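[recover] target loaded
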């Protein structure tokens, strides 16, 4: 397989806004276990290709270039997935014979799956896509939500990526003036033959924050009988009060205006608390520390983290890992990253913590400098499983 790699290019359309995900940054830049989704995708499939092209959202090109390095060609994506792939095709090297198209939203699709797609292409297939059997009964409905058809699920498949194509086939498919949710559909539309191979469970699609928890299970060794994961997102607008102090990641930031909130507005701490509550099924930040509980008015992020630890521990769980990504133009996290990690870890009883930061390049609440946000993931296990 390795001798054939120079003939392969990898295209990743990653220009989606992440609106359905609910994050204030493009979904491809959301972190999963310390790496962004786009980094995971390239780590798993990049070794199969001599050329990698990523279609980034407009305004985020430099951020993608800085993140991915010179080995990846970054182009400005289009308003739809189909348009992004079509744009990326314009940058394909002349010697490329086969093209893999892969969604950044499927970050854990394995190298082995990519190799299987390429192997099928080498047998003469012109379009190869991985797919899984459908376990549920599927209903087709009309505009009024009445069932009009129940397809035979034995003939239904849920398709995944990476999808592989002979270069000429994919190029021709994209000359059609139609939109599709996957490139295999474009080949079908011109009556091309599309071969299905068996996909894999780990090539799941990240659509909602809860999907990060599902994906995390593939990255964590199953050493415990009961592993739980959770995701938390928080954002606050900067205060109009110039005397309001900024508290973030358990630290007070000098010469920075703070954010409004019932407590101290520490978005990093709040996102972590929500992630832990979600993992343990103990409600959320509002139900545990919200405005209905005046004792938490003005409470520090460190205090809320400590209180959350008590609740998690009382429910029989132990924290294994915390990852939080801070989103905003300011303050600059880098110089104080280690202090932030230490403060959060201390509040959580010495738990392993990672802290990262990103911006939204002038877009949205954080990009316009109106506020700051954070996304956190938490990994917890049943305490008694540690004794086994």
């Amino acid at each position: 397989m390795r001798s054939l790699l120079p003939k392969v290019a990898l295209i990743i359309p990653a220009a989606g806004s992440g609106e359905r995900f609910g994050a204030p940054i493009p979904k491809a830049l959301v972190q999963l276990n310390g790496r962004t989704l786009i980094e995971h995708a390239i780590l798993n499939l990049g070794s199969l290709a001599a050329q990698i092209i990523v279609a980034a959202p407009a305004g985020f090109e430099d951020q993608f270039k800085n993140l991915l390095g010179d080995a990846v060609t970054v182009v400005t994506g289009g308003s739809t997935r189909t348009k992004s792939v079509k744009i990326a095709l314009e940058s394909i090297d002349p010697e490329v014979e086969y093209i893999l198209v892969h969604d950044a939203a499927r970050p854990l699709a394995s190298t082995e799956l990519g190799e299987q797609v390429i192997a099928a292409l080498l047998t003469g297939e012109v379009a190869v896509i991985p797919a899984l059997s459908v376990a549920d009964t599927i209903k087709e409905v009309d505009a009024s939500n009445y069932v009009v058809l129940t397809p035979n699920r034995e003939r239904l498949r849920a398709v995944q990526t990476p999808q592989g194509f002979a270069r000429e086939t994919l190029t021709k498919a994209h000359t059609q003036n139609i939109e599709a949710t996957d490139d295999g559909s474009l080949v079908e539309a011109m009556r091309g033959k599309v071969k299905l191979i068996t996909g894999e469970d780990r090539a799941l699609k990240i659509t909602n924050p809860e999907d990060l928890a599902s994906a995390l299970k593939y990255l964590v060794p199953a050493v415990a009988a009961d592993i739980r994961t959770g995701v938390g997102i928080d954002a606050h607008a900067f205060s109009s009060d110039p005397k309001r102090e900024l508290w973030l990641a358990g630290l007070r930031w000098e010469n920075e205006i703070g954010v409004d909130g019932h407590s101290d507005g520490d978005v990093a701490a709040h996102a972590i608390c929500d992630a832990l509550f979600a993992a343990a099924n103990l409600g959320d930040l509002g139900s545990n520390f919200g405005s209905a509980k005046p004792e938490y008015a003005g409470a520090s992020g460190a205090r809320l983290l400590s209180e959350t630890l008590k609740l998690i521990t009382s429910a029989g769980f132990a924290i294994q890992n915390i990852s939080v990504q801070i989103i905003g133009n300011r303050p600059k996290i880098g110089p104080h990253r280690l202090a932030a990690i230490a403060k959060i870890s201390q509040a959580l009883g010495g738990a392993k913590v990672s802290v990262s930061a990103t911006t939204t390049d002038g877009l949205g609440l954080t990009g316009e400098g109106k506020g700051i946000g954070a996304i956190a993931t938490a990994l917890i296990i049943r305490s008694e499983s540690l004794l086994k």
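[recover] notes: Residues 1-6 have pLDDT under 50 and may be disordered.
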